Amino acid sequence: GIDHSFQREHLLAAGYFVTMAKRIESRGAAAVVPEGMTRHRASVPGAIVSSVAFLESSINELYLEFQRAGDDGSSIPTRAHTQLESLWPSADGAPLTLRYQVALQAVDAERFNDRRSTYKNVERLLELRDALVHHQPERHDERQRHQSLQRRLRTCFAPNTLLAPRARWFP
Hints:
The chain is mainly α and 171 residues long. The chain has helices at residues 7-26, 34-67, 78-91, 96-106, 117-133, 144-153. Helix 1 (7-26) packs antiparallel against helix 2 (34-67). The relative contact order is 0.11. The model has no long low-confidence stretch (mean pLDDT 84).
């Protein structure tokens, strides 16, 4: 098996950040002092980035388990190992959702339905993470990219109740 898995730590971190953000939000905007706003603005991206890190480490660690199929103690069937050996090179470095689809294909499991809400929510989470990590500032008269992202995410995530109605959008 893997010497040390980080997926658990990433998932615990995501849960912690969500709990912290909810705790701050539950106080209401009027009761949150500037330090609380700073903690909230750190917790929300922390939850997003940690959630994606969990998904990334999970598929990468699964692939390592596939590579070790046939080793003592591996629970991965040899047939799946053989299939993944031929499929993974085309998925290595590919988008996260494609890597999960390849892993499912390798074990002859049903692929994720890209029309279902779970799949779409993962795609939106990845898009939000990318917007936070690879942020490209826009001038106030050129906000189309961020407004488009905001519209797509509005149905997935509850609005940030700590922001004023006219404030620039932040998850």
